[in-house]
Amino acid sequence: MSPTAPDQLKSRPAPGRGGFTLFEVALALGLVTFGVVSTLMLFPAGLKAQQLARFKIYASAKALEMVDAYNSFHNQNPASDIEAPNAWDVHTTYKGQAPDLESRLASYRNGLLPLPLTIARRLDSDGDEIQNLLAQGGYLYYSQPLATTGLNETAFGTSIPPNEAQRLVIGVIGFPQNNAIPALPQKAWPYYTPYPSPPVHLQHVNTDLGGADYWSGPNCYAWEPLDRADTAMKTVYDTYKDYFSDQTREKAVIYAKEALNWNLAKGIPLTYLNGTDKITVFAASPNGDNLWQQVTGLRMWAHAATTAFHWASSQPVPTGQAAPTTIDIAGNATVTLSEQTVRTIHDACLALGMRFQATHPFDFGCPRPLQRALMMDFPLIEYDLGSAPLEGTIFANGARAQQWHPVATSRLTSLGVSAMYPNPASSSVGAMGEAALGTASSGAGAGSLWGSDPSHATLTASFTAAERCRQIVFWTADWQSYDDFETAPSAPVDASKYLKGAPRSNATFDWCMTHPPFMDWQQYTYRNPEKVLAFIASNRAATGSNDSNGTGVHDQGSSRAAVFSGLYGADRNGNGKADQGTVPPSVRLRAQVVARFNYYDLRVPAVIR
Predict the structure, then answer these.
(1) SS3 call for 294
(2) Which residues of 494-533 are buried (b: 16+ CB within 10 A; e: fewer)?
(3) Tens of pLDDT along 288-325?
(4) Prediction pTM value
């Protein structure tokens, strides 16, 4: 018998569960949402970490590039004036030519360009490090648009791709040391001349050489000797000049005779002059201060003897006669010259010149041998920051000027006269003779130019590593987002980056401001660092090294001061246009530290090859 319907319902098993409850669904959605949100929250941190890692690579590469450029940068700016009666009339000892990292690299060739101060002052950083740097007179820098440095301005153009490394801003933290003077303006020692050679004579058309004691020839004058009243040296110079203008045997012999007489008059032994002995040491000197005279005398005598013997061995010889092998030079003594004696005299000239160079580096009595130019020829001179400065006025301008007294690590002697400005005190451009330079840099014979306390010279003093350590700091900041990032004027340009000519007779100040002309291929540390990017007109329609006339000197002269100073801004991203960002100047940006690198601060100009 079949069960009834209620009985059937009681015996049927309960159906299985078919889904989640609403609570479970809500809980699952909550977990998924938390996971998704957590993952999304990690994206910015991950991107930030990735970006920071990328900029660390940029900073490391840039730091290596900077230090390499710093260590191999040119020490010379040949198309510039380096001597003047006063230090403020030339720029060789000013900040623009200092051997400091930022001074050397702040150039369009070396890729470290100063960030406009109006933009730099809007950047905040940890501990206000950026603003403290600016307050101390430092600059922030940005990288050039090109991917590398050392290229000519012709490499800039409209096809430069965006350079993300330009978001880096760079500061040099720590004060530089008081640097050595690369070339003392009043006398840019060392002077060089070949050994052997005649009396040193210089082409000199830029100053007024009044006075017969300078023995001027056509645009020339004799620099030697130290004593301008040395009439015997004047005779040597005059006879050489006479021979040079009319090269004959007779005049060569006269020139040699007077060179021989000068040596004998200075007490130089005849055995040092007749070629009988190989000379390697100085002759005993009764007063101990004529070693430079021995070097100078033997240098001139070797030249004169070789010149005279040339005529003995090069004259036509009549048929059947032997060629002469000697020539007699009769002065206050008679010396017979042969090929062997001339060779011996030549060797003696070189031996004494090299010995003097090595053993008397602080004696300015005679030029250094050109055949052996050494860095040790440069004396260690610095400015004495511990005493009152020299005062005066700028040539042809009258503006008040000051500069510290120079001081040397060792006593310099036999200072002589300047090559460019040996003029009498009545000269309109000033003079650097013995009255100004003195016969020594300190103690007896010191001139008024020099500092009174030699102990203030610190170039050879011991130091700790911390005293010579500075730091390159890299930050990242999107400074190109400002709406005036290209229209803001350049950071102020140090006045010593403007090449100004040294004093000239009858020259005006405007003449000095345009002579010598700007020649980029020979002037490595001059000009506005943004020169090849700077806009040259207020409409910002053109950039580059040439003006509308294509002269290539668009920022030289008082009428071009706005261009030289970069007042119209610059094409800082190198795309050939005047761009504008979206962030107003009122907004401050945060700069994040990327990396720090310590480096050694040079005090002397040096090139590490």
Answers:
(1) helix
(2) bebbbbbbbbbeebeeeebbbbbebebeebbbbbbbbbbb
(3) 568 999 999 999 999 999 999 988 777 665 665 555 66
(4) 0.84
Report in angstroms the alpha-carbon separations of 374 from 79, 90, 354, 361: 22, 25, 11, 11
Spatial distance between the Cα atoms of 121 and 127, rounded to a whole number of angstroms: 14
Amino acid at 450: W
Residue type, position 37, single letter: V
Contacts of 498 (CB under 8 A, 6+ apart): 91, 513, 526, 527, 564
Top-ranked range on mean pLDDT: pick from 160-164, 209-213, 275-279, 568-572: 568-572
Answer yes or no: are the C-beta atoms of 516 and 80 closer than 8 Å. Answer: yes
Contact status, residue 102 vs residue 114, Cβ threshold 8 Å = no
Q: Are 446 and 577 in contact (CB under 8 A)?
A: no
Phi-psi region of 190 (alpha: psi -120 to 50; beta: other; left: phi over 0): beta
Return the minimum-mean-pLDDT range out of 171-175, 424-428, 551-555.
551-555
Q: Quick check: 391 and 404 in contact, CB under 8 A?
A: no
Q: Render pLDDT for 343-378 as a digit per residue (tens, 0 to 9).
A: 999 999 999 999 999 999 999 989 999 999 988 899
Report the helix count and the strand count for the chain, using DSSP H and E. Answer: 12, 17
What's the chain's length in residues? 609
Q: What is the 3-state secondary structure (H, E, C) of 271-284?
A: HHCCCCCCCCCCCC
Contact 346, 196 (CB under 8 A): yes
Q: Cβ(429)–Cβ(421) under 8 Å?
A: yes
Q: Show the tokens assigned to 58.
A: 């940029």
Token pair for 169: 């801003």
Q: How far apart are CA 194 and CA 253, in angstroms?
A: 21
Containing 102, the helix (H) or strand (E) segment is helix 101-105
